Amino acid sequence: MRRSERGRQRRPGYSYGPIENAPADDVYPAGTIAMARQLGAPESQGSQFFIVYEDSTIPSDAAGGYTVIGRVTSGLEDLRSTITDQGAADGAPDGAPVRPVSITEFIVE
Fold first, then answer.
1. Based on C-alpha coordinates, what's the Rg of the chain?
2. How far apart are the first and last CA of the chain?
3. How far, in Å, CA of 25 to CA of 65, rounded?
4. Selection from 68, 27, 73, 28 nearest residue 52 by Cα
5. Cβ–Cβ < 8 Å for 47, 38
6. Which of 15, 13, 17 is nearest to 63 (CA)?
7. Looking at the domain assignment, is residue 10 inside a domain?
8. Does some domain include residue 83?
9. CB atoms within 10 A of CB 9
């Protein structure tokens, strides 16, 4: 979530659902792009997404899995070597990367 100047969480002003295109077996292949959401809330998808950088089992919760919206078709190895291999900023196993990241281009086909 984005934070305002006062540190409060700001939501994108909209949310949608239900969950669609989630894998029935909870296995998300490397390169999957999926929508983030609040736990247990299938209608809470908004503006945040995540990229799966290695084949991963992400267990569904009571609401289901995560809506798959696309896949990375090139550059995944670069993402691994320059971003994910450096770990998370706070040393946790998952979270914001040590190196700030910006998406500068994408193509919708």
1. 15
2. 27
3. 9
4. 28
5. no
6. 17
7. no
8. yes
9. 8
What confidence tens digit (pLDDT) does each residue in 27-44 have?
A: 999 999 999 999 999 999
Which is it for strands 56-57 and 27-28: parallel, antiparallel or unpaired?
A: antiparallel
| Number of domains into which the chain is organized | 1
Give the pTM: 0.80
State pLDDT tens for residues 40-79: 999 999 988 999 999 999 999 999 999 999 999 999 999 8
- Position 90 scores a pLDDT of 87
- SS3 of residue 14 by DSSP: coil
Q: 3-state DSSP call for residue 36? A: coil
Q: Using CA atoms, how far apart are residues 23 and 68, in angstroms rounded to an integer?
A: 8
Percent of the chain exceeding pLDDT 90 equals 53
Report d(CA 55, CA 27) in Å as an integer.
Answer: 7
Range of the domain at 26: 16-109
